[in-house]
Amino acid sequence: MASIFTQIINGELPGRFIWKDGQCVSFLTINPVTPGHVLVVPRKEIDHWEQIDTPTFTHLTDVSQKIGRAIQKAYDAPRMGLLIAGLEVPHLHIHVFPAWSEELFDLRAAEQNPDPAVLDESAARIRASLRAMGYQENVPDEPVG
């Protein structure tokens, strides 16, 4: 059975995408630790990060860094958080989020029922920042999908 992330990637479940390319996608998490919290996910289902091939992992971290820079500008965050936890979904994903304190690195404190309007606004804000940085070819136009 496909992971929930594969279902989102394939359009079987909704997602607020901010990045799409041939190897990975990025979309807002439905349980953010702060507004602007996204996941960077390989298209290929890989459970453990240490099992991914080096070129794909390098691409994921490169995309995470680009997205992190865009989020930092969009939210004027003093730091950016990056985590690989992988216990909740058996499909590698990198958490990227604006960070104002170390407490935000605890995913147990993530918001369980965020306002959909806030998620939509976050997606639009990050997409605009990515476009301003020159990444138009990877930034989808759709607000949800």
UniProtKB/TrEMBL annotation:
Native source species: Gordonia hirsuta DSM 44140 = NBRC 16056
Residues forming coiled coils: none
Stated name of the protein: HIT family protein
InterPro entries assigned: Histidine_triad_HIT, HIT-like, HIT-like_sf
GO biological process: nucleotide metabolic process
Domain HIT: 4-106
SUPFAM superfamilies (alphabetical): HIT-like
Residue spans crossing the bilayer: none
Positions occupied by motif Histidine triad motif: 91-95
Active site as annotated: H93 (tele-amp-histidine intermediate)
A molecular function GO annotation: catalytic activity
